[in-house]
Amino acid sequence: MSKPPRIALVNPYFRTRAATELLFPPLGLAALEAQLRNRRLETQIFDCTFQTMGQLEMSLRSFQPDILGITSIVTLVNNTFNIARLVRDILPECLLVAGGAMPTLYPERFSQHLDAVFCGEADLNFPQFCQDYLVHHLNREKLGELPLEMYKGLYIKQNHLETINPIVHHSESEIQSFPIIDRSDFNHSAYQEVWDIKFGKKTTSLITTLGCPFNCDFCSRPVFGNLFRRRNLDTIILEIDQIQKLGYDNLWIADDNFTLSLPFLTNFCQRIAQRKLGWSCLSRSTGVSNTMAQMMKEAGCQRVYLGLETGSENTLKVMNKQATLEEGINAVLLFHRAGIEVAGFFIVGYPGETRADIEETFKISLNLPLDEISFNVPYPLPGSKLFERVVDLDSEKDWKEENEITFIYKSEFNPDWLRQRINETMQAFALKKRS
After folding, report:
1. How many domains does the chain have?
2. What is the CATH number of the domain that holds 266?
3. Which residues form the domain of 160?
4. pLDDT single digits (tens) 31-45
């Protein structure tokens, strides 16, 4: 008896155990799995977080997928290509498809290793593509028999076939009709154990809004674009109930702009306040008020992460952050006074800033009442203004660890000096926290 057609979805992250490691299940794959299973397609997520490459190989040999989709972000490009080579060896007939941030940014690079790439949001088009491919019993050599022009975001560039379709960003009404993501294939006990040991709470991630309407110089928003959209709040609450039943007691809200819509934020806080669930989120430094901070605190917010970026007004302008230093300081103080912990993200070594600007960033990171700080160097992404301005960019160079202090272009700043100053600042911050 022949097996039913199967789709494998792979998260190519293997634990690095870096000091900055924060482990979350890949929600993008979980969203795709929900869409695929709605179409009655047998699908399984292979999350490599707690596996080895050998274990992944054994699992894929057993599952025997006809299509394998793999997501990829910065730091995971080499893992993605290694897994693609593995699948080519053990499952030569399997169709390989890439998606996510890095394939969206570099589709031509990924198409050299995989059969197809889906750029941008693939929630509807990738499942339709899979269904059509499987229903018509096609193989890799017969991809051209599909109506390839109808699958938005599809990129194929093989010797005999070329398709480059425009990226789609789903409307808010479409997103609000999407099913709750499917978390059933994740090793929740392993995720919870890591968080419990390190932080004393069991945290998982949640996405409530998509897209960012701002135009920061360093950001290209490859997948979700600049269209801000909100999910259906009833669906979000059902998902939170599901998360609590799985044993989690804390949420990381991973939206780029969770506090952007005050009506949405207010409704969310009212709905979640009774659930005795702690949560953290990202926020812009603009638009923060004492009323907002107090409301979030009363609804269970424990920590807010602010993209402060710099302590220099000049660098903020170069970054086109559309925020002032005063607004950043004010946001930190408002959240701090409301009893919410505050973490600050900073970028140092930015093209156009000076050593004095960088020193101002180190200074403000130590002077503000922050509970956590982190530093990074610029990573120019296609589609960003920064990408257009840097010289001698090496698109083949990749970060291998989180927050790696490595330039992928020719920088006027010495990375060894930056590493030293970052280490000195982090040590001073740790000493301040202990005192």
Report:
1. 2
2. 3.20.20.70
3. 6-164
4. 999 999 999 999 999
